[in-house]
Amino acid sequence: MDNCLDELLQLTQQLASRLETADYEEMIEFVDTREALVQNIRQQYEQHNIDKAYLESARASILSYDALILRRMQQLKDEASGNLNRMTAAKQQKSSYEAKYAPESMFFDKKK
Q1: What tens digit of pLDDT does each residue of 5-32 get?
Q2: Could you state, in order of their start, the residue ranges of all structural domains in the chain?
Q3: pTM score
């Protein structure tokens, strides 16, 4: 059990050490791995195969990195949102110059 906690703590510390250069793929991998480890820790906790004092100290240490990780995730989200907005604006500008009619069409005017 302690090895799952140790692995989670080590994983969190590794990500925190290279947080500014971590891209969204690394964040996704981190979240997936973290979720699997937390599930394993929960199962062990329910089976009472855990040192509760060590769990609390490891938990506090892991959670101390959460604000930094969440801030980086928000930066990546904002960056992606900005890129999507720029792409949408560029697409709208491009479509405004494109013809919205068939080039072979004809108009029939009536005199009043």
Answers
A1: 999 999 999 999 999 999 999 999 999 9
A2: 2-11+23-84
A3: 0.72
